[in-house]
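Need residues for this backbone.
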């Protein structure tokens, strides 16, 4: 079995769980934030909806500079509704999944570098960058969004087991 074929079931499961969480974000709570230093709910959800796009970048490019000198950092356009969040997420999932499925073991073992302002943050094999920079990063922010839902009395979906709101998977 190829590396990409072994990664796809995990990718599919994590993205399905993220979609379940994004589905619950109400448009009227997009400006809500738990603390002045925190993302607003809509900004956090937009980040989650955009994160899968990094899979194709990781596979197709040797590096990305997230804070290029003399240029504004890349920034996702904010989503303005739950429907827009889900459409963006679904589009990025399709592109990401195709990029992963089409990547050879040789490609996935090549180094990939994250740069900020011309400074190397890390260099990892692409497969490791996919797991940490894309998938684990997604899980991290999905958990944050789950807390936002809880603090707004919105049912938190079951992910790896039952939630206090849902007794089943």
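Answer:
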């Amino acid at each position: 079995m190829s590396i990409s074929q072994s990664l796809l079931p995990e990718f599919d499961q994590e993205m399905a769980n993220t979609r379940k969480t994004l589905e619950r974000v109400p448009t009227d709570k997009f400006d809500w934030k738990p603390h002045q230093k925190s993302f607003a709910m809509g900004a956090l959800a937009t980040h989650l909806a955009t994160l899968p796009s990094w899979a194709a970048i990781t596979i197709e490019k040797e590096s990305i500079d997230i804070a290029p000198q003399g240029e504004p950092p890349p920034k996702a356009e904010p989503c303005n509704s739950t429907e827009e969040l889900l459409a963006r997420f679904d589009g990025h999932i399709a592109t990401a999944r195709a990029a992963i499925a089409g990547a050879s073991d040789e490609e996935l073992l090549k180094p990939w570098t994250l740069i900020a302002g011309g400074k190397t943050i890390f260099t990892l094999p692409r497969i490791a960058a996919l797991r940490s920079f894309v998938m684990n990063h997604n899980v991290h922010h999905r958990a944050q969004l789950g807390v936002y839902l809880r603090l707004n009395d919105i049912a938190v979906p079951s992910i790896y087991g039952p939630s206090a709101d849902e007794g089943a998977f």
